[in-house]
Design goal:
two-stranded parallel ribbon; single chain; mainly alpha; 6 helices
Length: 175
Amino acid sequence: MSSLNLNTITLSESDKLIGYENYPKWKLLMEAHGNPKGLGRYCKNRIVVPMEYWQEGDKVQDEHMTTAEENKGEEEEGKEKDDNTPLSTSSMLPKSSKPSKPIISPASEVKFTPLHSPTPLALKYELCESVALSSIIINVVDIYGSGIDPNQKSHITWKLLEEQYGQVNDHTRNT
């Protein structure tokens, strides 16, 4: 069993995200510091959300989110899955090249959480998700000007910044 020593990523003031002009460097530094800690999976939405993390009354956001138990039932019936079928904990890698949507995993299927596990227990999920989001937020110069909602998940914030600053446009080509 490994111990979990997670600290937020803190870049120097000159490396913090200002906008499109330093986004590629910022992204590279964030990934270089975050991936060894396992935070890249959270920012890129490649984590199975533990069932106990969801509270009564939470709604499944779209048809790609399901429980591993529902997937298990399909697998037992011998049905083949297509690329749009959600993952189960027994098949962690997506069949398509697109990142998968999070699925809900019952706690009974996971007994412990290895360091870089894509199926964390609830406590580790909450801790790592919080550290991933905090790492993004503290490394952006203008948090509110960039449109970041500090109450969102890290993968939503990461995608927002990528869409906002990661796209090549006329302005970035001319600088």
